[in-house]
Design goal:
Elements (H helix, E strand, L loop, with lengths): L1 E10 L4 H11 L3 E10 L2 E10 L3 H12 L4 E8 L10 E10 L4 H11 L3 E10 L2 E10 L5 H15 L1 E7 L6
Antiparallel strand pairs: 1-3, 1-4, 2-3, 5-7, 5-8, 6-7
Helix pairs in contact: 1-2, 3-4
C-alpha cells in the first residue's frame, strides 16, 4: 500500500468534498487524515490516503474537478512513517487581538524555542480582530509556567491577549 498526499485548492462551491472523496473511494483509496477549510472564500483541503492506485491514476480521476479552472489538485506519494504518541503534554494556545504582521511567527516561536510542536493551527481575521488557535505538544521537560510567562511577554509586545490551557485528553 502507498500513501498519497492530495491537495485541492480554489474557489469554493458546494460538492467539492463529496466529489473528491467519491473519486478517491472509487479508486479504493482509504482516507486516513484530512483537513478542510475555507480561507477568505477559497476552499483548501489536504488529504492523506492509502491504497494501491498510482499518482497518475489519482490525478486522472480528479481531473474533472479542475476542468473549469476554479480548482487546482496536486497528488504526491509520501513515505509511510510510524507516528509515535507525543511524550509530552498537549495544550490549546489561543491568541486574540488587533491584526498586525508577525503575530503567528512570534507566538509559535516561543513554542519552538522550548522544543514544542504545533500539531494544528487555525487563524481567522474578522474585521480588525485576529484570532489564532493552535494545538501544541510541549516536551516533558518544558517549564509550562516559563512558557506562559514568555507568551505573555510576547503578547504584550504585540498588543494581543494570549491563553495556554491543557487540552482535553479524550480522543475523537
Amino acid at each position: 500500500m502507498t500513501l498519497h498526499a492530495i491537495t485541492v485548492l480554489g474557489h469554493d462551491r458546494p460538492g467539492i468534498i463529496a466529489e473528491t472523496t467519491g473519486k478517491l473511494a472509487g479508486l479504493g483509496l482509504n482516507l486516513e487524515d484530512s483537513t478542510m477549510t475555507l480561507l477568505r472564500g477559497h476552499f483548501a483541503m489536504m488529504l492523506v490516503c492509502e491504497g494501491d492506485a498510482a499518482d497518475s491514476e489519482i490525478e486522472s480521476a480528479l481531473a474533472p474537478l479542475t476542468a473549469d479552472g476554479s480548482l487546482t489538485v496536486t497528488v504526491r506519494e509520501v513515505p509511510t512513517e510510524e507516528t509515535q504518541a507525543a511524550e509530552g503534554t498537549s495544550w490549546i494556545l489561543s491568541v486574540h487581538g488587533g491584526d498586525r504582521p508577525g503575530i503567528v511567527s512570534a507566538v509559535v516561536g516561543v513554542v519552538a524555542g522550548v522544543g514544542g510542536n504545533i500539531t494544528d493551527l487555525t487563524t481567522r481575521l474578522a474585521g480588525d480582530l485576529y484570532l489564532l488557535v493552535a494545538e501544541v505538544d510541549l516536551p516533558p521537560a518544558a517549564d509550562v509556567a516559563a512558557v506562559e510567562r514568555e507568551l505573555a511577554s510576547v503578547a504584550a509586545e504585540l498588543g494581543v491577549g494570549v491563553s495556554l490551557r491543557a487540552a482535553e485528553t479524550d480522543e475523537l
